[in-house]
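Help: read this over?
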Amino acid sequence: MNLTRSSIAVYIGLVFVSGVLLGGFGDHVYGTRISPSKSGKASKSPEDVRRAIIDFWKSHLKLTDDQVAKVGLIMDETRARMDEVHRGTIPAQQEIRREQMEKMRAMLTLDQQREYDRLQKERENRIKKGGPRGGPGGF
């Protein structure tokens, strides 16, 4: 099969257009199904999620009022235990972070250490103000 330059250009154009369409579709699907907050919808509060879960089980399992109350207690107990586990990991996370910072400072020159300390201070101030935690290179 002998292809002309114009037919090759048409095929390349079709591949490009199909890539753009597929990318747009993928972004739309990801934005609405995986990450609803990206689509502009407000995320549900934990209480809204809890209520929706209880309503789901109530309607699908035809729970009695007594069973609904017990499901609520089970969910409350589970949430308290999960919070406790999370709080327990915070000191370990802080220790890992402290060790990382010590190792970073140890390999830097004095000028680099001063800049590193300044950047760390900026990060701490951002966090205290409720700003974003991240930055370049996971900083």
